[in-house]
Structures are given as C-alpha cells and as structure tokens.
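Quick question about two entries, pasted in order.
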Amino acid sequence: MELKLIVIRTGNPSAVASFYSLLGFVFSYHKHGNSPYHYSAIVDNTVFEVYPLQKNQDGADGSLRLGFGIDNFDTVIKTLQSNQVVFASEPCETDFGYMAVISDPDGRKIELYKK
C-alpha cells in the first residue's frame, strides 16, 4: 500500500500553504477540472493539497493530526521559532524519536520528526 493523497481544507489557503512552506513544501497554485484553485505539493509519491473550505463547511477540521519526517530538522525548527510558530511540544527525545509538535494556522497538531 502507498499513501497517494492528503487534502486539508481551510478558510485561508494562502496562509496555510505559506505555513507548510516553512516545513519545506514547495507548492504550485492551480486547478483541474471543476475543482477550485488550490495549492499542491508533491513529496515522494504523495500529493499534499491545501483547498479552500467547501460551501457547507464552517471551519477547518482541527482534529486532524499530521506527522512529517524532516531532513533539515534543526534549520526548520529555527525557521519556525523565528516565525513565531506555536509549539505544543519543544523538540525532545520521545519513544517515537526526536520530535516536536507545532500547530498550524487552523490549530491542527503537526508532529515533526528528525530524520
């Protein structure tokens, strides 16, 4: 099995894409078919997309939790700190490896693992 696609929805796609760019994602802004314009990045074989909220959505799903292995972990952490990103857990050794937990602009918890 292979994970091919992750889509998150937000009320502010440009701000959320900018946030994830701090982690190293490189987004393109496009649309295909009848979809709305959205941000899309490819990591290995997985497409990570940031879409606007659907018409029937009041807000983003804050319960979604994502985890990413980061190649240049220390540099990314410094970049996040200098951009006043909220840390739920500062970098530390855990049972799962050396990691930190941050919050994205919509309040989703993001686990960052040192590769």
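Here is the second entry:
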Amino acid sequence: MAAGIVSPVSRPAQDLFAGLLPPVPRKPLQRLPRGLYTYVWRVSGPQQARLVLMTLAVFPLAMVPLELQRRIVNAVVSLEDFGVVPAVYLIFIVVSGGLKWVRGVYLGRVAEGVIRRLRFRVVRTLDGDDSEEGAKVSMVVAEVEKIGGFVAQAVADPLLQAGVFFSVFGYMLVVEPLVAVVAFGFFVPSLLLTPVLQNVINRLSAQRIGQVRQLSRDMTHDDFNGLDEAALTAHYDPMIEEVHALQVRIVVIKHLLKVANNALGHLGPLSVLVLGGWLVLQGRTEVGTIVAFVSGYERLMGPARDLLNFYRQYSQMRVQYRLVADTVRTDEATQAG
C-alpha cells in the first residue's frame, strides 16, 4: 500500500472476513469433471458450505411478516392497540435486510471468483488454431460467465427458495389448513407442466448452441476464406436460418409456459379471497388471517417461480457446461498427443 494511504478496513478485520467468508481460489482445476455439480463442489466447496449456513439463517424469517401483518390487521378491525408490533416489524426489516445484504454480496464474490477461475482454465487450452479460435473466444466471453454465475447459486438459491416456500406454507397450514391446501393445489399443474416443456427447450437449446459454435468455427476457418458471394451464401444461409428457427421455437415454448404459470398464479389468490371470505362470514376465521394469506400466497408464488426458473437455468447450464468441458478435454488430448 502506498505511503499516506490508510485502508478503511484494518488488516485483522480483513483477515477475519477472509477467514469467515473465503474467496474462490485463483488457481484453475487441472481437469474439468464432466458433471456440473461435481464441478460446483470441486471449484467452490467451502464457499458453498458457508452460503448454505447463511441461507439457513435467512429463510425461516419469511413467516415473520405474515404473523405481524395478521396481528396488525386484527388489531385495527377490533379497535385494539397495536402494542409493540410495528416496532418489532421495523426491527425485523433491518435485521432481515442486513442478512440478505451479506448473503447477496458473498454470492456475487463467489460468482466472480468462479468466472475468473474457469476463464483461466479455458484460456490455457488456446493453442493458436484459427479454426477453433472463434468458438473458444465465444466460450470465454459468454458461456463461461453464465456458468460461473450459476455455480455461485447452484446450492444456496434452490435451498433458499424451497426453505421460504415450505416455511410460508407451513405457517399457512397451521393457521388455516383448508385455505392453505386449496391454494397449494394451484401449484401442482405448474410443477407437472414445467419439467415436460423444459426438456423440449433443453433439446432445442443444445442444438442451437452446437449450430452457433459450428457457424463460428466455419467463419474463422481457412477453407471458407476467399469464396465468392454465391458460395458463402449457399453455405452460411441454411445455418443462420436453422439458428433462427430453433430460437423462435424456444421463444414460443418459453412464453407458453410463462402464460400458463401466470394464469395459475392468479387463480390462487382468488381461491384465498373466495374461500377465506366465506370462512370470515361463517365466523370461522379472522379478517387478518385472510389478508396475511393473500400476502402469503404472493410469498409462495415468488419462491415457486424462482424454483421453476432455477430448474430451467440448471437444465441450460448443464448443457453449456458439458459443451465447455468436452471442448477443454478434447483440446487437452490434442495437445498431449
């Protein structure tokens, strides 16, 4: 450090932070495993363990706002004093926000560390072969960054979303079982429909990635330099049209899945309001419970949507990682031979 410049954080504090939340090492792996989650644990195992611990501290807090909202509304309806509930709510917001901030910052650090480590590994396979240079550069710039970002959240993100979902659903089930079960029923079609359509998207994505990489290789290959316009058009146009057709099919299926999930997402709150309203009229539940359940259903929709998105992302990253790992292993074998 230059003279006269004082670090805003002391060295002991930095060492303590690095010990509690260590960064991802810079040194790349000697060999890339074929499985995506095998790579996740080998490249960032200690970091994943700490992210899991932070996640376990965050998701149980998801049910706290629902209970506080229920008590506030019931106090308003019965013209009772709020007591300390609003103050507790404010304290909860501060504590929960702080935990989420630390977790989010560490997720970002892990992601960038994995991206750097994987880039180092891919760059070491560059051997000056112009016919492969375009595909490898594309891999370093785009595919590697997506994979690294996924690795950071590969364990902690689905754990958080599943934890929030079951914490909120468990709270609703305890407070008003009938409404909770009916509302949960609208998640079942999404859970059945998403994997089926996602498998179709996965196959199309794999074909599209392979076609794009073949296009990149051909554009930098010596055999295609100097060809006249007619020959270039005859060679490249079908490949470009194929990439376009695959992407259009992917977009159509993605939006079909999105529309179906959104429709089911609107039916859930409607069931809470109708059934819950009937229970209020019968004197079998409180207004505050229904208000909390409407909010709770939104809290269920968020994690459920994120889990489905995670499944789609995992399916895509598994394909991309396999392509990257296969390319690296092929280059290693070529260079060794």
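Reply: The radius of gyration is 26 Å. The chain is about 80% helix and 0% strand. Hope that helps.
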